[in-house]
Amino acid sequence: MMPDNCVFCKIMAGEIPAKVVYEDEKVTAIEDINPQAPHHYLIFPRKHVRTTLDLSDADTEMVGHVFQVAGKLARDRGFADQGFRVVNNCNEGAGQSVWHIHFHLLGGRNFSWPPG
Ligand code: 5GP
Ligand code: ZN
Fold first, then answer.
1. What's the 113 CA to ligand 2 centre distance in angstroms?
2. What is the pLDDT along the chain (116 residues), one digit of tens a residue?
3. Please, which residues have CB within 8 angstroms of residue 101's CB and are 6 or more apart in sequence?
4. Which of 12, 57, 83, 94 has the highest Cβ tally under 10 A?
5. Pocket flag, ligand 1, residue 51 (CB < 6 Å)
6. Whose CA is nearest to atom 24 of ligand 1?
């Protein structure tokens, strides 16, 4: 079910504009509105799942698919060889601010470790 106040559900419904860089029957990928790297995309499922803690067996294939889409975007956009990050923030302490599960794909620069 689509919650009325979910920004990513609204983007998929065309109610909020976004730069869509990939979509298929399982996931959508958009440019992040506040990019933290030269390439910063958000990959999320069509199905509204609140956080990583809410994933079920039915979502296992989707999560694997997200990583395949991340690799495809990185290759297609030319930053795969340099290296990239796929990040999921779960709950407020980790920085989650949108409550529809999503995976950040960050690339086009070098990244330090540990993350902040
Ligand atoms: P989180 O903090 O939950 O891990 O990541 C949420 C991300 O969504 C942030 O990087 C933020 O910039 C992005 N974001 C929030 N609202 C919008 C929006 O309306 N459009 C787009 N394209 N990105 C958004
Ligand atoms: Zn949603």
1. 31
2. 568 799 999 999 999 999 999 999 999 999 999 999 999 999 999 999 999 999 999 999 999 999 999 999 999 999 999 999 999 999 999 999 999 999 999 999 999 999 98
3. 44, 45, 49, 50, 51, 52, 54, 55, 88
4. 12
5. no
6. 33
Closest-lying ligand 1 atom to the alpha carbon of residue 95: 2
Phi (first) and psi of residue 16, to 5 degrees: -130, 130
Answer for the pair 7, 97: CB distance below 8 angstroms, yes or no: no
**Homologous superfamily of 7-105:** HIT-like (3.30.428.10)
Q: Cα(110) to centroid of ligand 2, in Å? A: 31
Q: Respond yes or no: is residue 102 known to be catalytic.
A: yes
Domain ranges, ordered by start, for the chain: 7-105
